[in-house]
Task: inverse folding
């Protein structure tokens, strides 16, 4: 993880570290929404809880099974409600704006690259206005996606804990060949910083 800083470009890299996504191996991860950040230079532990949900379908409730074809020809294995909604919105964008928006491209099969909405301003404000109109209608509940929850769903609950790495520990390990005993106290000499680091088993208050 330390190498990520030297390998990154300051102008293009907003964050340092890595993004971790725990997901069903059969599904496509969406790092921007489901990922967690791990900062370089930290000792990080991840606590993971796995929950599998089984929902009853009709007549007790409404849910979608893996591979089930929904009203707008959406079908995936495994079925994901989030993925279904993203695909539904992008299909509506294509219907109105005649292109698929890159924001939802992961959930849509693109027939040709020419159908991807340009986001560099070359197409003018027309496509941007069209996209904003679709998103406004979606937020207002005017787009009916009919994406029920999954009948069988796997959920991963992640809890992160981090602590700062002890640089002295790694320095001592690196310089272990210079370990010497002086007046009964072990010490190592760091040639990088030109100072001596003492290791004492005595408590500082005693």
Result:
């Amino acid at each position: 993880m330390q190498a990520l800083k030297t390998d990154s470009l300051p102008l293009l890299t907003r964050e340092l570290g890595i993004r971790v996504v725990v997901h069903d191996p059969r599904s496509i991860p969406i790092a921007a929404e489901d990922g967690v950040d791990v900062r370089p230079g930290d000792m990080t532990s991840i606590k993971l809880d796995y929950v599998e949900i089984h929902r009853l379908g009709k007549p007790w409730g409404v849910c979608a099974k893996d591979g089930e074809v929904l009203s707008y020809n959406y079908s995936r294995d495994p079925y994901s409600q989030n993925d279904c909604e993203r695909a539904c919105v992008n299909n509506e964008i294509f219907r109105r704006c005649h292109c698929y928006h890159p924001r939802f491209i992961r959930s849509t099969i693109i027939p040709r690259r020419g159908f991807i909405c340009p986001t560099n301003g070359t197409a003018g404000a027309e496509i941007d206005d069209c996209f904003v109109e679709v998103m406004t209608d979606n937020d207002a509940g005017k787009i009916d996606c009919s994406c029920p929850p999954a009948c069988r769903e796997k959920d991963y609950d992640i809890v992160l804990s981090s602590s700062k790495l002890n640089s002295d520990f790694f320095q001592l390990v690196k310089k272990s060949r210079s370990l010497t005993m002086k007046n009964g106290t072990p010490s190592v000499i760091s040639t990088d910083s030109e100072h001596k680091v003492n290791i004492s088993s005595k408590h500082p208050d005693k």
